[in-house]
């Protein structure tokens, strides 16, 4: 049975500054739901996709195709509706200057969200120190930054995860668009000839690689499947196979909360009272 963490005087002071709240919401229910929908649909798409491609015997071709198409819709909704909505509406630290009108609240929120999800100079510094840590030189840097006084995250994501997000966004677009063409070369949406447009782009690009358009689309589709497999291995296996980071697995899959007194990979800022400042 796990021992209950003993609070230090500093922990108690931080909790008091945080209005007596020890646990903070790291992931909302909708964020956890979007992550689960993305992960579930990705695994189902990989299994059914390789069944269709390789001819595995665990289900019929038609059933695999049917399940594949259903979870393709789930995958699209999770990545192009739920996740963007969660990013756009994520909570940011309170700002008194925004409330008083000195700062533009929209710009302040947008800059905070951009810093949380886009790679910046500090992320590259953290990745450098992470590499040093892997060879036994230096401590693992804190990648979670929480503003105690203003109750909000400045940063949540591991720097390598932020690096992978750029490529994941492109991979999602490529695998969806090539999948549309593979599914139906005449598919359209609200009168827009989506597949013919994609085929026209493919007719221009595919010859550069010495391929026919359909074969080029299939090759890209398969390549993106392998990319997602590699990304999952990096994301789960290399980055987070550490008992101290399991708290984030628990947060994203179960409770959504984080203990403000667990300082592993966490940096707390604005921890002084007005009298101390």
Descriptors:
mainly alpha; Fumarate Reductase Cytochrome B subunit; 10 helices; 5 strands; Cytochrome b/b6/petD C-terminal domain-like protein; single chain; three-stranded mixed beta sheet; 277 residues; two-stranded antiparallel ribbon
Structure summary:
The protein is mainly alpha-helical and 277 residues long. Helices cover 61% and strands 6% of the residues. It starts with 8 loop residues before the first helix and ends in an 8-residue tail after the last strand.
Characterise the protein shown here.
The protein is mainly α. It has a single domain, classed as Transmembrane di-heme cytochromes, Chain C (Fumarate Reductase Cytochrome B subunit), CATH 1.20.950. It is built from ten helices and five strands; from the N terminus they run αβαααααββααααββ. It has a three-stranded mixed β-sheet. The protein has a two-stranded antiparallel ribbon with strand order 1-4. A hairpin with a 4-residue loop joins strand 2 and strand 3. Helix 7 packs antiparallel against helix 9 (213-238). The two termini are 41 Å apart.
